[in-house]
Design a protein that fits this description.
The complex is a heterodimer.
Chain A lengths: L5 H5 L7 H15 L9 H15 L2 H8 L38 H7 L26 E7 L1 H6 L1 E12 L5 E12 L8 E4 L15 E7 L5 E4 L2 E8 L1 H6 L1 E6 L5 E6 L8 E4 L12 E7 L7 H13 L11
Parallel strand pairs in A: 1-5, 7-11
Antiparallel strand pairs in A: 2-3, 4-5, 6-7, 8-9, 10-11
Chain B lengths: L8 E2 L1 E2 H4 L4 H8 L3 H9 L19 H14 L4 H24 L8
Helix pairs in contact in B: 4-5
The chains are: A alpha+beta, B mainly alpha.
């Protein structure tokens, strides 16, 4: 287990006041909140910052943390010294932080596991006689291929569920689900799987599972809602003389596309209805780019020179003013 | 692989096929009905229907409610601030969509 320097995480001095710690935390929390910051490591950073704040904002926890000494460095191998917290009384064993996050092993070894967050309608629910509640709804995120949205797909997904055992420890349980991905689903949409959430109480029935769908990054296609964009490179002579090219589509099939003569770079050709399918299907946009080959051999240089002679072409007329 | 025996679970696409009541949305997003009513009055959520009993939440209401809940809880934002934050996030995602359409490579980073 690695030592975590909570002061370093928040970027404050060990002597920082409560107010300084709070303002440092607030600033970082806004910066790294996963709903605001879509960078890959934002969620991880947000959790670290929340954990650091949970300790440093709490006078008791901060004092206990401080008395381990300031010689520890972040990332150093760490085992809590025996009786390290002797004489400290924690009025709250829970994790004060936020974002559905779980604490690091380091935090747990010092302060124990936080209370399991209870969502849903009623906070704590006791299975009293005659009480019926629908089980909690669960949420998970999964990544699918763009082709799955075009064709529909059957996928076996693995979900990791934190569960609370009888002694209050949290362990992760794996659950496999065979899910049919409907044709036409778009990034950011949710798939509701009825009855696949938490168990109900009494005759309440199980909750639902919501799968938030996103696409694996795709090297060829860009997706905007139901519309899909594809960059199509052309050679200068293809663009000038016109041609027919084979264009792949995300469904796996390909199309013959006629490029008219004198096509310019950046021209957007709309293939109506070839976007993500649905009642009102999206469009597939083919955006032309023109790639010019470099002239390396004598013959290639001559070809460019012949080009120059044949055209009276000045691409910079607009710069003359 | 004994693929033949698998029962594939069919899901329903929330955004296009479901219009939730306030009770369903509250359960699905783990947000109290009071909060949801607050957010509707501030324009964060726009259900169809005229009274809370008739409200039906469609489109991106669920993900919007989840985002609203996380932001207000994690950053302790009040409702007007939350409405502003969501409006700015909408603007950012519209700008990002524009970058995607233009084909600016910098979108890959974000």
């Amino acid at each position: 287990m690695k030592f975590q320097d909570y002061y370093e995480t928040l970027g404050v001095a060990r002597t920082a006041t409560e107010a300084e710690i709070k303002s440092a935390y607030r600033k970082l929390a806004r910066k790294y909140h996963p709903d605001v910051n879509k960078e890959k490591d934002a969620e991880e950073r947000f959790k670290e910052v929340g954990e650091a704040y949970a300790v440093l904002k709490d006078t008791e926890k901060r004092a206990a943390y401080d008395q381990m000494g300031s010689n520890w460095k972040s990332g150093q191998d760490f085992t809590p010294p025996p009786n390290w917290n002797e004489g400290f009384e924690f009025s709250d064993g829970g994790f004060g932080g936020s974002y559905e996050g779980d604490q690091s092993e380091f935090f747990e070894s010092l302060f124990g596991r936080g209370k399991h967050r209870q969502g849903g309608r009623g906070g704590h629910r006791h299975p009293d006689q005659g009480m019926h509640f629908k089980g909690q709804d669960h949420h998970a995120k999964i990544l699918i291929d763009l082709a799955d949205a075009y064709n529909g797909a059957k996928r076996t997904i693995t979900l990791h569920m934190p569960t609370l055992d009888a002694s209050g420890h949290v362990s992760t349980q794996e659950r496999k689900l065979d899910v049919s991905i409907p044709k036409g689903i778009k990034a950011g949409q949710n798939l509701r799987l009825g009855g696949q959430g938490g168990p109900g109480i009494g005759d309440g029935g199980a909750g639902d599972l919501y799968l938030e769908i996103n696409f694996h990054p795709n090297p060829i296609y860009r997706v905007d809602g139901k519309d899909v964009y594809l960059d199509l490179p052309l050679a200068p002579w293809e663009a000038a003389l016109g041609t027919t090219v084979k264009v792949p589509t995300p469904s796996g099939s390909s199309l013959e596309l006629t490029i008219p003569a004198n096509t310019t770079a950046g021209r957007k050709m709309r293939l109506k209805g070839k976007g993500i399918p649905s009642k009102e299907p999206g469009d597939l946009y083919v955006v032309t780019i023109i790639l010019t080959p470099s002239a390396n051999t004598e013959a290639q240089k001559e070809a460019y020179q012949a080009f120059e002679k044949a055209f009276e072409f000045n691409p910079r007329t607009h710069l003359k003013g | 692989m004994t693929q033949a025996n698998i029962t594939w679970i069919e899901g329903v696409i929330v955004e296009t096929e479901i219009h939730m009541s306030i009770v369903e949305l509250s359960q699905a997003a783990s947000a109290s009905e009071d909060l949801i009513m607050d957010w509707v009055s501030e324009g964060v959520l726009s259900p169809s229907g005229s009274s809370p009993q008739d409200w039906r939440f469609g489109g991106d209401s669920l993900s919007r409610t989840k985002t609203a809940l996380r932001l207000s809880r994690d950053l302790e934002i009040n409702t007007p601030g939350l409405a502003l934050a969501l409006q700015l996030l909408d603007q950012i995602s519209n700008l990002k969509a524009q970058l995607i359409r233009i084909g600016n490579n910098s979108t890959e980073k974000s």
